Amino acid sequence: MRTVVFWVLALAAVGFGVAVFRVDSMARATFALLASFLCVGGTMVLLDLHYLGVLVVLMMIMEMMVMAVFMIMYMMNPAGLMPMSMLHNRRGALIISGAVLVALVAGVWTVDWPERAGRPPGDPTRALGEAVMGAQMPVMIVVGVAILATMVSAVVLATDRGRYDGGDR
Amino acid sequence: MLPWSIGVVWFNAMEVVAWVSVWMVGWGTNSAFPLVGGYRFLAQGLAYELPHMFALITVALGAESLDFGEIARAQDGLWFVVWMPVAFLVYLLSVLAMAFWGPFGHPVGHDLAGGAVLELAGPDRLVFEAGRYALLVVASAAAVPLFLGGGAGPLLPGWAWALVKTYLVLALLVWVRHRLPVIRMDRFMTAAWVVLIPATLVQMLVVGIVVLG
Fold this sequence. Notes:
Distance between the termini of chain B: 36 Å
Number of domains of chain A: 2
Number of helices of chain A: 6
Strand content of chain B: under 5%
Order of helices and strands of chain B: HHHHHHHH
Radius of gyration of chain A: 21 Å
Distance between the termini of chain A: 60 Å
Number of helices of chain B: 8
Oligomer: heterodimer
Helix content of chain B: over 70%
Largest sheet of chain A: none
Strand content of chain A: under 5%
Helix content of chain A: over 70%
Radius of gyration of chain B: 18 Å
């Protein structure tokens, strides 16, 4: 069952990823990318990383909607209502992505994959967190709060006297 | 497949889907006013979501759990609404905002001839409005285990108290609907980031100190 779900999610993730470059508007590309990320979130749930999987779903939805906000801020076609090509710098992109693909495939085939020793931990999310951060956990937490404070204050400073804050305050 | 232990995160993730749905409704109908309404809701989302998340984190911190059941049980002696009043108020505000209800109805405002839902009629409109009402009801119901002690109460069984409390929260939100003027998004954004985020952070600090102490 898990294998079937994995393959469905994996193929859907790749399929939506391809769709990002096939569709003809910013809005459609945004949501194709979102669908692809949601499939990745599902794959993480499949690995029993429930918390991280749901977090990926939460963050990717918000992120893609923020991208929609950027769309209206910076695009020449803010509404995404007119068809436009999603492809730029085709030759360069082809070379770069081809090189990355070759490197990744070479990695897959040449690396000596380790045999599994022991069994999966009871709480993989906790185990992953400890493996990634270990002794640096308090440091990372403090840094996280510092980054948040920086973001909030940067936005507050940047939006002071914005375009629409003329005479009504 | 998903365990109850991450209930609050799942709740948060699913409520953010409202951003997608309102924007998609606005964009998908290929019409100018609904698109403006959809973008208004995104701006509203950016304003209410951070204080909302901090309110949820405060509760999770106080209960030391992301499980709704655990959170309700953690309020055995004292309901969270008593010692986390700021988080509760912010939560109620964000429920109004996420269901674009009453004072937060700018995305479907009259000045946009109906905003995001302008082009919807018949079954489409029914589905959209049903989803909106469901969001309001579910978010009211979630306030019960988060702040109001879950099923705790004298005489009546737990489920009955949960229902009564849900209806009380819902009644309050419905009552507010036409009693406050609609807020413009940029103004609410300023208030949310300058007042609500620091207020919820201070609330979280207080709760954190209590939990550690």
